[in-house]
């Protein structure tokens, strides 16, 4: 039997119709929560979640502050409160260097991935303050933790999101509002399904040798959203199969013959 950590809780989820967002919605419902999903399209998500009566959809664009305000207000009006905000919506960037990057697209990605958190939080936090407590979980990325080839706009947006999260966390810790980030590495989703042979190259670079399933990353999202993480705020939790732990150096155990290793006894 699943735990019921979210019994009676209202969870507002952006980007909840696919990938990590959808997997998290299903697990929130399984543990007793009621989800209010904001996304660009419904994508039949309400038909695929466990308890359909505990899922609601609002069509909107997180890159538009007026949509964010309207969606959160609609959630509170319909469900009476806002206990948890899980901001998962994001836009990937094309592979490009800065000189070749389209300026309008750069601004769009920063707006969708970074500014959206500001738009949502400025409405959600006052509601949580009225209620006396609340939780915000944002989806960062391993791209926020270090530079990556060809992803300047995406990396910048996710790194900015992490520090915005930290600033909000310390500003509102005494309001009993916890704010943390989940930072996934490579996940096997519909978004990455078209990578073909590149997917194998990426997965071979991960110490655990595979990408994550959205369902296993979602378990970490639920941990951060639950009272199990009651003394955690301002934290960026990396869930990446050891990717960020790797310095990028080659595997010396494979490259250096045994007799030339410093620990060799021969």
Automatic annotation (TrEMBL):
Lineage: Eukaryota, Fungi, Dikarya, Ascomycota, Pezizomycotina
Domain of life: Eukaryota
PANTHER family named in the record: DEHYDROGENASES, SHORT CHAIN, ESTRADIOL 17-BETA-DEHYDROGENASE 8-RELATED
Residue ranges that the Swiss-Prot or TrEMBL entry lists as coiled coil: none
Similarity comment: Belongs to the short-chain dehydrogenases/reductases (SDR) family.
NADP listed as a keyword: yes
Protein name: Uncharacterized protein
GO molecular function: oxidoreductase activity
Keywords attached to this entry: NADP, Oxidoreductase
């Amino acid at each position: 039997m699943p735990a019921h950590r979210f019994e009676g809780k209202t969870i507002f989820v952006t980007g909840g119709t696919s990938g990590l967002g959808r997997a998290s919605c299903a697990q929130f419902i399984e543990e007793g929560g009621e989800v209010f999903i904001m996304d660009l399209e419904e994508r039949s998500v309400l038909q695929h979640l466990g308890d359909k009566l505990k899922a609601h959809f609002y069509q909107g664009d997180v890159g538009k502050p007026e949509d964010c305000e309207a969606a959160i207000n609609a959630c509170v009006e319909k469900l009476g409160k806002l206990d948890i905000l899980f901001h998962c919506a994001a836009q990937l960037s094309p592979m490009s260097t800065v000189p070749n990057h389209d300026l309008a697209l750069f601004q769009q990605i920063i707006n969708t991935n970074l500014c959206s958190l500001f738009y949502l939080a400025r409405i959600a936090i006052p509601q949580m303050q009225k209620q006396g407590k609340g939780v915000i979980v944002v989806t960062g990325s391993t791209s926020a933790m270090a530079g990556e080839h060809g992803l300047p706009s995406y990396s910048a947006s996710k790194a900015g999101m992490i520090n915005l999260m930290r600033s909000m966390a310390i500003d509102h810790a005494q309001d009993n509002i916890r704010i943390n980030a989940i930072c996934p590495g490579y996940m096997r989703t519909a978004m990455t399904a078209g990578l073909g042979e590149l997917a194998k190259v990426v997965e071979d670079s991960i110490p655990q040798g595979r990408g994550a399933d959205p369902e296993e990353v979602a378990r970490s999202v639920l941990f951060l959203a639950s009272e199990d993480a009651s003394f955690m705020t301002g934290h960026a939790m990396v869930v990446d199969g050891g990717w960020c732990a790797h310095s990028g150096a080659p595997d010396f155990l494979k490259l250096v013959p045994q007799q030339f290793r410093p620990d060799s006894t021969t």
